[in-house]
Amino acid sequence: MAQVERSTSTGGKRYLTSKAVVYDSVTAKNIQLGGKNNGNGQLKLYDDTDTLFVNMDKEGITLSNGAEIIGGSGVLTNFQYYSVNVGFAVPNAYTVFDYFFLGYNSDFSAANWGSFIELNAYIPSNFTITEAKIVFTHTPTNWVESGVYDVWGYCRNVKAYKVTNTSDIVVSSAYASTPNVSGGYTLTEISNAFGASGYTPSTPSASSHITEITTSIDIKSSLIAGNNKIVVKSGDAVPAYNATFATNAANLGIKTGYAKAIINIIGYLQ
Fold it and tell me: Which listed residue, 120, 217, 245, 268, has the most CB atoms within 10 A of its CB?
């Protein structure tokens, strides 16, 4: 069989054909395509409408849309890493399935601070990235305490940041109490990951509160071989602390929702 030109299927079985000859089965110790003495040998598979959908040759295995499954760069591979919550210290206390608190928090005694979700992605050294995008999902939240405050909250100006220059973290605390933490890190914004002004979901209300999904630009240039940490958070300044509890809660609540993220990394593993 010099070259398989097409395939046919009958009764659920697929037959490889060479010109007009149909082979019900093929048994061979070796089937060689290409190589020094066989030029540019190819194996082509067609569907029942005579449309090419897989091509195999000396360059590898390619789909009809041009996607290379196996080639000189390796095997087509997809890594996905899901976000984790760092907004609260109590596990699962503020978890809604896989959504996490995103926006701002307060000790309601002296200080407010921003919360964020993080993505931890490990890239093997023998992996070549062709595309890396963050899929971000946000749902608005009705923050309400009877007679105190009642606001619809959503995160604003969502951006992605690369975490670098991490130093050793040292924690000291009375057991199971609020910890004192030393150490640090640097957040570097991934430029325009969710647009020049970041991503802001639609303004919610009692009659219009929908979950929205947006996808970042390709951020592969921000990833390196080994461990990567990406933070997703609001790019706005933290609202100033207000000693009036209801006012402070409302000021933070209107800029806080629930969110989750996935970083989807496509490339070739050698």
Answer: 268
